[in-house]
């Protein structure tokens, strides 16, 4: 089976998850976006993004348009907790956007937030104040992805591959 793990990453979060996925799948090709690979040449694609203002990033969006009917497992990283109410809402929004018969599933992991983005957001009109609660959430995000997250990503990848092999 010819497998591609392709990803876009700003701070390295999605790259870490992509590497864990690729390493769990012997023979998987690992490519960072942008890339000139033809998705139609693969039997299975793992396609990863980072959350950009509540949406998958533009590089990912551009690549994703060309996947066609190839079985695809989608993964992403975001600064918030994927299991929180906001995280689940984000996942639902992404699933609505990518809904197609060839999409095997979506999995999200938490990752650190780029300090430059925090600086930019602090300067915006109506910016949220940096409360102790918000600081704590950002400190927790900075710990991710953890070794446990990477292990979960590898297990998830193996499950997605098994689903295609059936």
Automatic annotation (TrEMBL):
Is Flavoprotein set as a keyword in this record?
Answer: yes
Q: So which residues are the signal peptide here?
A: none
Q: Which Gene3D superfamilies match?
A: 3.40.50.360
Q: Where is the composition biased (Basic and acidic residues)?
A: 131-143
Q: Which domain of life is it from?
A: Bacteria
Spans annotated as Disordered: 126-146
Q: Fetch the InterPro entries from UniProt.
A: Flavodoxin/NO_synth, Flavoprotein-like_sf
Molecular-function annotations in GO: FMN binding
Name the UniProt key words of this record, in alphabetical order. Flavoprotein, FMN
Residue ranges of domain Flavodoxin-like in the record:
5-155
Protein name as it appears in the record: Flavodoxin
